[in-house]
Specification:
heterodimer, A: about 325 residues, alpha/beta, nine-stranded mixed β-sheet, four-stranded antiparallel β-sheet, 15 strands, flat, disordered N terminus, B: about 425 residues, eight-stranded mixed β-sheet, five-stranded antiparallel β-sheet, 12 helices, globular, disordered C terminus
Chain lengths: ~325, ~425
C-alpha cells in the first residue's frame, strides 16, 4: 500500500477516523496498546524519576554513552554488567549511580536534545549542537514559534527545535525519503513529542511544506535549497519571519542567496561556526640544567593547561540566514 | 480599511515600546517615548514620529527629526562599465563635486539616493570602473550618506549583536554565537526552573527569559545591593513574563545552604496609639519604608522557597567574578542530571573550575569549549570570507550534574582518557 500511494500526503490524512487535531497517526501495524499520556519524561519537559517508557541515557564514561528505552522487565547489557530495568532503573532518580551485575557502575541521565544528538542512530549525516545552537538563536526560536523544516533526516535538529518551541509551538517537517519519514514519526511518538510535530513525506522543492502563511521560521538542509526558497516564502507568515539554509558547498550557498534576493528576502547573512574543544591536562616541562645552582632545586615544572586535539573538525556547512519582510 | 488596521495592530509600533534602531550592521536599543529625542549614528531624531507604523519599516530622517516611511528602492539602472582598472588614475581629482557642493545639496533637502546619483554623475572615472567596482563605490557612498533608520522588534539575536558591537565590555566580551551555545547547552526551555548569575547588563537573563516564553521560573542570583536588569527591559517582554522572574542576593547563599536563612516577618506590630498631627509626615515615610522592606522580604522568601528544594533544572553563569566559587556555590541548588554552563572571558579560571569539579565529583561530560565564527560575503563572482572574528569571544565550561557520591575516592575508576583517543565531537 505504501509504495503506491502518492507521496504528497500528510500521514494523518491516511487515517481519517483518527482526530485531526495535530496528533500524529499510527501506522495500522502497531499495537493498540497506547500508553496513557502522563506528564512524564519527554524531550521537552524534565521529570525527576525514571519511568517505564522513558528514553534515557546510560553514561559509562567520558565519550561513552548509550540511549536506553526503559521497559518493565527488560535488561541492558553493558561492559560493566547487566542493568535490570525493573529493579535498577524504574523509580530511581535521574542522575543516580546504578551498579551493574559485574560490579561496575554507570550513571543514568535524563534525555536532552543535546544528548540525543550525540547518541541517536544515524540515518543521514546530522547537524551537531554547535550549528543547532546558532540556528536556534538566529532563527529566533522560542515557545510558540511555528517552524518548517526540510529534510527531517535523522531528527537531530528536529528534537532541538521541538524543545525550543514547546509547549505552544509546532514543527512541520518534510522528508522525501519514505522510510526516514516513517522512522522519524515513530521516534517523535516514542519521545512523547508527537503532539508538537507533523511529518510529511513529500518533496519540498515540488510540493512545499504542506502549510502556507503560518511559519515564523523555515530551515532548509537539502541538496538544492534554491528550489525550495519560494515554498519557504509561501509557508511563512505574511508579517515576516526568518529563514536559514544549511549547505556544505559554496556553490549551493551562492545559488541560494540569489534565490533569496529574487524572492525579496532581506538581511542576508552567511556564516560558519566551528567548535574548539579544549582538553584540560597537566603537563610537565623539564627545566634546563645549566650546572650547579642553589636557586633552582626543581627538575621540572607542572603546568595545568589545555591542548587542542590533533585534528580539529574544520567544516560542517555554511549557514545562510535571511529575513522575510512583510508581504 | 479598518479591518486591515485591526489585523496589523499587533505589528504596529506603539508609544512606550522598546525597539531597536538599525542602520546596516549598527544597532541601538531605545524606548519610544513622547517627544523624546534619540541619537543614533550622529543624528538626532524623534522615534515617536514612527508610532503607528509597522515594525520592520525603514524610515528617512527628514529635517526636524521626523521619521518618514521610505518607499521601496527602485531597481538600479544598468550603467555603462569598464573591464579592469589599468587606465584609471587615482589622483583624487575624479570627483567634480566639492565638499561644499555636497553640503549645499544636503541643505536643499536632497534625499541620500539623489546625492549618490549626483556623485556618480559627477565622477569622471565611474563609467570606466568594472560593474563590481561600481557596486562597491555606490555601497561605500550609501554607507556615508545614508539617512535611514529601520525600526525592529527586539530579540535575543538582535540585542546580542548590538551589545557585542556597541558595548562588549558590558557583556564580558561575549560574542553572540557564544551566547547561542550557552542557551542550547543549558537546555533552556519552557517550564523549567533556571538559575542565572550574570553581570552582562541583563542580556543573558533576558535571553534565558525569551527562551522560556513566560513559562517556568528564572531566579536571578545577584551580587551587591540589587539586581541589574537594564538589558532585560530592552527585550520588551509582556508584563506576565516578569511574574516568572525572581531574585536572590548571593550574600544569603551560605545561610540558605546551611538552612539558617530566616525569611519570616520580624517587624513588631505597628503601634495603634494616636499620632500627633505634625508627626504624620514622618509616619508616612516610615510606613513607605516598611512596605518596601516587606516587599523585599516577600521576594526573598519566595526565591528562597524555590531554591531550598535544591531542584533547579539549569544553571547559567556569565560574569566578571571568578567563576570557580560562583559555580561551586550555586551548583548545589541543581537536581542531579541537569546541565550547567559557565562563561568566562578568560580560559584559566575555567581550567580551575574543571579541575575542582573533577576533584569534587558529581559532574559528567565536562567540556571546555569556544567557538570560532566566520562571516562571508556572497555575491556572484565575489564570494569570500569577511573579517575574521576569532579572539574576543570568551570560553564556556559545560557539564551535567549527577548524584554526588560521598563514598567515592578522589581518583575515580573513570579517569580522563588520554587525548590521543579521538573525541566524538562536531563534524565528520
Amino acid at each position: 500500500m505504501r509504495g503506491t500511494r502518492a507521496r504528497a500526503t500528510a500521514f494523518r490524512s491516511r487515517h481519517p477516523r483518527l482526530p485531526a487535531n495535530g496528533c500524529s497517526v499510527e501506522p495500522a501495524q502497531t499495537s493498540r496498546d497506547r500508553r496513557p499520556t502522563v506528564l512524564a519524561m519527554s524531550f521537552v519537559e524534565y521529570s525527576d524519576l525514571i519511568q517505564d517508557g522513558d528514553v534515557a541515557i546510560v553514561y559509562l564514561g567520558p565519550e561513552s554513552m548509550m540511549p536506553v528505552k526503559v521497559k518493565q522487565g527488560a535488561q541492558t547489557q553493558t561492559r560493566y554488567g547487566v542493568i535490570r530495568h525493573s529493579s535498577d532503573l524504574i523509580g530511581r532518580r535521574y542522575g543516580s549511580k546504578v551498579t551493574c551485575s559485574k560490579g561496575g557502575w554507570v550513571y543514568v541521565l535524563h534525555m536532552t536534545p543535546e544528548l540525543w544528538t550525540v547518541n541517536l542512530p544515524h540515518r543521514t549525516q546530522i547537524l551537531y549542537t554547535t550549528d543547532i545552537a546558532t540556528i536556534t538563536m538566529m532563527l529566533e526560536l522560542k515557545p510558540g514559534a511555528v517552524v518548517c523544516e526540510s529534510g527531517t533526516g535523522s531528527g537531530s535538529l528536529s528534537h532541538a527545535i521541538l524543545r525550543s518551541i514547546a509547549p505552544s509551538g509546532h514543527l512541520h517537517t518534510v522528508e522525501f525519503h519514505q522510510q526516514r519519514a516513517e522512522k522519524a514519526e515513530e521516534e517523535f511518538k516514542e519521545h512523547r513529542v508527537d503532539r508538537l510535530v507533523t511529518v510529511r513525506n513529500q518533496d519540498v522543492c515540488k510540493d512545499g511544506f504542506g502549510v502556507t502563511g503560518v511559519a515564523d521560521a523555515v530551515f532548509l538542509d537539502i541538496p538544492s535549497p534554491w528550489e525550495a526558497v519560494r515554498h519557504a516564502k509561501a509557508a511563512m507568515k505574511r508579517q515576516g519571519g526568518r529563514v536559514c539554509s544549511f549547505s556544505p558547498c559554496i556553490e549551493q550557498v551562492q545559488k541560494t542567496c540569489e534565490a533569496l534576493v529574487d524572492q525579496g528576502f532581506e538581511e542576508l547573512s552567511t556564516l560558519e561556526v566551528l567548535l574548539r574543544v579544549h582538553d584540560v591536562r597537566t603537563v610537565y616541562l623539564p627545566l634546563p640544567d645549566f650546572g650547579p645552582d642553589e636557586t633552582a632545586p626543581q627538575t621540572s615544572v607542572a603546568l595545568k593547561t589545555t591542548t587542542l586535539p590533533r585534528e580539529m573538525p574544520g567544516h560542517t556547512g555554511y549557514l545562510t540566514f535571511a529575513t522575510k519582510p512583510r508581504t | 480599511m479598518a479591518d486591515n488596521v485591526d489585523e496589523d495592530s499587533p505589528d504596529r509600533i506603539k508609544a512606550g515600546d522598546y525597539v531597536v534602531l538599525k542602520r546596516g550592521d549598527i544597532f541601538k536599543a531605545v524606548q519610544i517615548q513622547p517627544k523624546k529625542k534619540a541619537m543614533f549614528e550622529k543624528q538626532w531624531f524623534l522615534p515617536d514620529t514612527a508610532v503607528g507604523q509597522l515594525y520592520g519599516s525603514t524610515f528617512d530622517v527628514a529635517p526636524g527629526g521626523i521619521l518618514q516611511p521610505r518607499k521601496p528602492k527602485d531597481t538600479e539602472d544598468a550603467n555603462e562599465a569598464g573591464t579592469d582598472n589599468r587606465h584609471i588614475l587615482d589622483d583624487g581629482k575624479s570627483q567634480k563635486l566639492t565638499r561644499d557642493d555636497i553640503e549645499i545639496l544636503k541643505g536643499q533637502g536632497l534625499k541620500d539616493q539623489e546625492i549618490i546619483q549626483q556623485l556618480v554623475d559627477n565622477s569622471s572615472t565611474f563609467r570606466d570602473k568594472t560593474k563590481y567596482a561600481q557596486d562597491k563605490y555606490i555601497k561605500k557612498k550609501k554607507k556615508k550618506y545614508e539617512n535611514t533608520v529601520t525600526i525592529l522588534r527586539p530579540s535575543c539575536r538582535i540585542l546580542a549583536m548590538m551589545y557585542h558591537g556597541r558595548e562588549p565590555g558590558k557583556i564580558c566580551h561575549m560574542r553572540y554565537d557564544m551566547l547561542a551555545q550557552m542557551l542550547t547547552l543549558a537546555n533552556i526551555h519552557a517550564g523549567s526552573k533556571v538559575l542565572v548569575f550574570e553581570t552582562c547588563a541583563g542580556l543573558v537573563l533576558g535571553s534565558v527569559m525569551e527562551r522560556m516564553g513566560g513559562y517556568g521560573s528564572v531566579i536571578q542570583m545577584f551580587p551587591g545591593g540589587g539586581p541589574v536588569r537594564a538589558g532585560v527591559e530592552s527585550f520588551g517582554f509582556p508584563a506576565h513574563f516578569h511574574d516568572t522572574l525572581h531574585e536572590f542576593p548571593i550574600c544569603h547563599v551560605n545561610a540558605l545552604l546551611a538552612g539558617t536563612l530566616d525569611t519570616a516577618c520580624k517587624d513588631p506590630p505597628a503601634g495603634r496609639g494616636q499620632c500627633p498631627y505634625f508627626m504624620f509626615f514622618f509616619y508616612f515615610q516610615a510606613q513607605e519604608r516598611k512596605v518596601k522592606l516587606e516587599e523585599k522580604r516577600k521576594k526573598l522568601a519566595s526565591a528562597a522557597a524555590l531554591l531550598e528544594g535544591r531542584n533547579a533544572d539549569g544553571l547559567v553563569i556569565a560574569s566578571r567574578f571568578h567563576p570557580c566559587p560562583v559555580l561551586l556555590g550555586l551548583i548545589q541548588f541543581l537536581s542531579p542530571s541537569r546541565p550547567f554552563v559557565v562563561y568566562s572571558q578568560y580560559k584559566e579560571p575555567l581550567i580551575e573550575c574543571f579541575t575542582k569539579l573533577k576533584e569534587r565529583g558529581g559532574t559528567v561530560n565536562l567540556r571546555l569549549t569556544d567557538t570560532w565564527l566566520r562571516r562571508y560575503q556572497v555575491l556572484p563572482n565575489r564570494t569570500h570570507p569577511l573579517l575574521l572574528m576569532s579572539g574576543a569571544g570568551g570560553f564556556i565550561l559545560s557539564g551535567t550534574t549527577v548524584a554526588v557520591d560521598d563514598s567515592k575516592p578522589a581518583n575515580s575508576q573513570r579517569a580522563e582518557e588520554p587525548a590521543a583517543k579521538r573525541q566524538k565531537v562536531d563534524g565528520r
